Every structure is written in structure tokens, then in C-alpha cells.
UniProtKB/TrEMBL annotation, chain A:
<feature type="transmembrane region" description="Helical">
    <location>
        <begin position="41"/>
        <end position="59"/>
    </location>
</feature>
<keyword id="KW-0472">Membrane</keyword>
<keyword id="KW-0812">Transmembrane</keyword>
<feature type="transmembrane region" description="Helical">
    <location>
        <begin position="80"/>
        <end position="101"/>
    </location>
</feature>
<feature type="transmembrane region" description="Helical">
    <location>
        <begin position="113"/>
        <end position="130"/>
    </location>
</feature>
<keyword id="KW-1133">Transmembrane helix</keyword>
<protein>
    <submittedName>
        <fullName>Uncharacterized protein</fullName>
    </submittedName>
</protein>
Automatic annotation (TrEMBL), chain B:
<keyword id="KW-0378">Hydrolase</keyword>
<keyword id="KW-0732">Signal</keyword>
<protein>
    <submittedName>
        <fullName>3',5'-cyclic AMP phosphodiesterase CpdA</fullName>
    </submittedName>
</protein>
<dbReference type="InterPro" id="IPR029052">
    <property type="entry name" value="Metallo-depent_PP-like"/>
</dbReference>
<dbReference type="InterPro" id="IPR006311">
    <property type="entry name" value="TAT_signal"/>
</dbReference>
<dbReference type="InterPro" id="IPR051558">
    <property type="entry name" value="Metallophosphoesterase_PAP"/>
</dbReference>
<dbReference type="GO" id="GO:0016787">
    <property type="term" value="F:hydrolase activity"/>
</dbReference>
<dbReference type="InterPro" id="IPR004843">
    <property type="entry name" value="Calcineurin-like_PHP"/>
</dbReference>
<dbReference type="Pfam" id="PF00149">
    <property type="entry name" value="Metallophos"/>
</dbReference>
Amino acid sequence: MTLARAIAGTYSALVLGAVVAPALVLEHAGDRGGLGASDGADLIGASMAVGVPAAALAWRRMRPSAWRSGSRTDVGIAGLISFSVLAAAASALPTLVLHATTGLAALDADSGWAVPVVWALTQAAAVVAGEATHRGVLCWLGG
Amino acid sequence: MAELNRRQLLAAALGAAGTLAVGSGVTRELWPLLGREDLVPGRTPQVALQEGAWTRAADRLTFAAVGDTGSGGRQAMAVANRMAEGYRDAPYGLVTHLGDLCYYGSVEDRFDDVFTRPMRPLIDAGVRFELAIGNHDGELHHSDESLAEIDAELRLLGTPARHYTSSHGPVDFFYLDSSTPGLFGDDSSEQLEWLDDALVSSQNQWKVVCMHHPVYSSGAHGSTPGADEVLEPLLARRKVDLVLSGHDHHYERTRPQDGVTYVVSGGGCKTTPVGRSRFTASAASALQYLHVDVVGDRMTGRSVRADGRVLDRFELRAREGR
């Protein structure tokens, strides 16, 4: 039981890390270049707002009781695949959307909230994609 | 250990391979891309500046030099904001833009985002902008599209030609189009002859050459191939004081090379790593611009980081023997 809890906890932490890491990368790049310390805080906040619930969802999926209710192997495999989908999408979707909207000048940065909201929405989409993948893989393996 | 059925085996293999591929792709490609580019839109600088506050005198000039500002992103806005703060502290009437005015699209579509919005306080204060064409203002080897892009930039910024001179107080500026196949290549003679004539006929105390591609750089792009053979001897022979360039996204100042000091001031919105070479006097990978004061025969330069920290300070004396 302790091992199962440790695995679920580590998995949740990895999910949180995958969601928050892109914002930390941006913060680090700005910091290295000489931006003020607070310049990346809004994106880190937005990522935390998405990442914490995502980590809680991940815990629910991987917690020991979930392992008992289904096949432990199936849950582990679904967790692995859904994590790779989530990790890729959590970095790729904001990058793609920012690149597209930079060219189109579609984001109203002066409003202060538009950029973190768009950032959070793209990462939320990544979490949804990870969750859907997890369920889809479980369903496929169970069938 | 439980035996895996065929479906589980396939899914496990896919999961393991996917995780490895994603780990590699994200950490080697996406995160460096995010860190290198300036994709997050930034807020317009909100600094109110006094119009025309700089000193006008025959023996004095204060100007700013910045390159590679063309993202319109958060980092570009931070540098532009620092330039406005720099104006407030020590007003200047001229910005020499060292190229790469526009990334991620055409300048016709993005001019407001990459220039008007970030530079609004300086534009409103009446500061003049002069542009040295960069490679993102048209590819190194010109296509019809890139030539149209260059023409659009020249028109939007009111720049008279692809290479030209301007005179401000005690300083003559010489702007080169280093993206033309020709400055360093087979067709170099036309622009080099023009530069030679212009330098010879220059009577001012200071000669400053502005171009996008650096003659000397210890950064990602490095020193421009061929520049040491075709351009450097001319700059030395005509006793140019200072050569300003961008292209590499860092700050670097050389020790005088045959009397000429070379500065890369390309940290206008992105940063790339910079090392040190035998010619390096000062170097930093930073978001920055260069603030230059000329008083008589003394020129003082400060490389100012986006947060206001001074990265480098140097002083030059006007070269003798003209």
C-alpha cells in the first residue's frame, strides 16, 4: 500500500511538473536576460491553477483504490501513455497558440489577463487530452 | 510478475516509446524554443516622455542603438520600456536600429505590434529612428518577397535607401545593407565603393558604421564570414571609430581592432549564449540596448539591461590623423 501511494504521489508530482515547467522555462529565460522577477509570475500562476487540479485528477486515477478496482497493469499502462500525451501537449499547445497569435496580433496583452487566460486554457486542453487518453486506453485494454 | 497479453504489451511499448520521445522532444526542442523566442505578448510601455528633450549642439549627441527587436513580445516591450526610461534619464533624439525589425510575419501586417506599440513613448517624444537592414527584413539572398519586405520597412520607417549616411551633431553615421548578397560576396564592389567614398568625404569628428551582421562576434552566428577580408581593412583605413551591429542576440564589445571598436547590441527581444574570443573586451547574453553620449572628442557608451543594470561602460576618444 505504501509503495502504491508513493507511485501515485510521484505520478501526481510529475503531472504538476509537466504543466508548470513551460512557464518556469519562460521565467528562467526572462530572468537570465534581465527581466524583472515578477514578469513570469502570471504564467506560473496560470499553470499552477491548471496543474494542481490536474495533479489531483492524476492522484485519483493512480491511487491504490483505483488500482484495486481495475487491472493494476492496465492502470499503469494508461497512466504512462496519458502522461506522455499530457507532457507533450502542455508544452506544445501554448507554444503553438502563442506563435499563431503573435503572428496575428490577436492577444490583447495590455488587458493584463488575456495572456494568462489563453495560457491556462491551452494547458487545460492538454490536461483534458491526457485525461481522455487515460480513459481511452483503459477502455481499449479492458475491451 | 503478471504476464501481459498482446494488447497490454503493445500499449506498454507505445507508452514507453512515447514517453521517451516526448521527453526528448520537449526538453530538447520545445523548451529551448520557448526560452529562445519571445512569443508571449507584452504590455505597451506606459512611460510619458517630454517631447524633444535632448540637447542639440554641434559638438554633442546622445543616441541609442538596439537591434533584433522584432517580436512585439514581453521581452521586446521590456527593452523598449528601458529605452524610454533611458530617455527620461538622459534624453536622446536618435535611435540607430541595427536590423531585424520584424519577426513572425510580414512587417506590413505587424508594424504596429513590433514597432509602433513598443516604441510609442519614444515616437511621441519625437525621437528619430534610422534602420540598418537585417536578415529577417529579407533573407540573406534576396527573393522578390524579401525585397518587397525590405522596401516596406524602408517606407514605413522613412529610411531613404538600403545604404545611406546621416549626420547628427559631431557624428556621421553610415548605414549598410549587409543582407545584400554583395557586401561580403562577389558583388561587394558597389556598396564598398560607395562606403569608401562616403567615409573619405566625411568631415565630422566621429564616424559610426551601422550594419546588421557583425564583423566580430562570439555568439551563436559568430563573426560574419568574409567581413574581415573585404570590410575590416576599409573600416581601419578610413579610421572608423565604432561599428554597431546586431544579428547575434547578445551584447559584445571588442578591444579596438586596428583602431576600430566593434559592438554587437542585438539583445532587443531575445537572448542567445555568447562566449569570449581573443577580441572580446566585454560580453553578456542579455536583453539590452546601448546608450551613447558624445561630447566633443569623447564618446561614452553604456550597455543597459532590461532591468536597468549597466552591463558594460566604455569610453572612446575620437581617432586622430583625419
